[in-house]
Description:
- The chain is of the alpha/beta class.
- The chain has helices spanning about 5-20, 25-30, 50, 75-85, 100-110, 115-130, 130-135, 140-160, 165-170, 200-215, and strands at about 35-40, 60-65, 90-100, 175-180, 190.
- A five-stranded mixed beta sheet has the order 2-1-3-4-5.
- The chain is globular and about 55 Å long.
Amino acid sequence: MRFLPHLLANNRAWAARIAKEQPDLFARLAAQQAPEHLWIGCSDSRVPANQIVDLLPGELFVHRNVANLVVEGDLNCLSVLQFAVEVLRVSHVIVCGHYGCGGVRAALEDTKLGLIDGWLCHVKDIRRKHSALLADLPDRRHQEDRLSELNVIEQVRHVCQTPIVQDAWTRGQQLDVHGWIYGVDNGLLRDLGVTVARPEEVEPAAEAAVAGLRGTATVAAD
Length: 222
């Protein structure tokens, strides 16, 4: 099966279905893309960005990496962010993590996986930063879910701190940054309450979101 004929057949069936349901969609997409949202999510195959928010091709600009990280010096992620903000002029950036994230679990348990260990050190930094909050939880499953939530909040902060987003706000561009988390066991998204629209909101919003997690059970573990 060198050429994966089943996937090519799936593609033909999908294209035919879309053409029937939205006859002008592909012509519009060929002319230009004009999404309002940038999605920064995890590479996990169970978290397909367009499908879980029920948007068609062309309606969501997407960047995905292991554990949905926004890291200073990651030219891939930052190039996507810059293109989305400055060229596509998106109005919303959504950082979306998910429960049951293998990258978060590996960072929590210090599992050695090879090359990716250097990438996951950024999640380990968040684990150390919030070690007291995580220690208050009853077991590893709750800690993993909570670390997934904390990771999203921290990545929202990182997005907001980039010169790309700071410059957009300075020139008066409307741009909101959101932090969400997805439950792979029920297909539902949860807003973590960390939405930022101006520079002065970054730290208060992040601190309030973390404070809101203290003393609460994780959604996925209940």
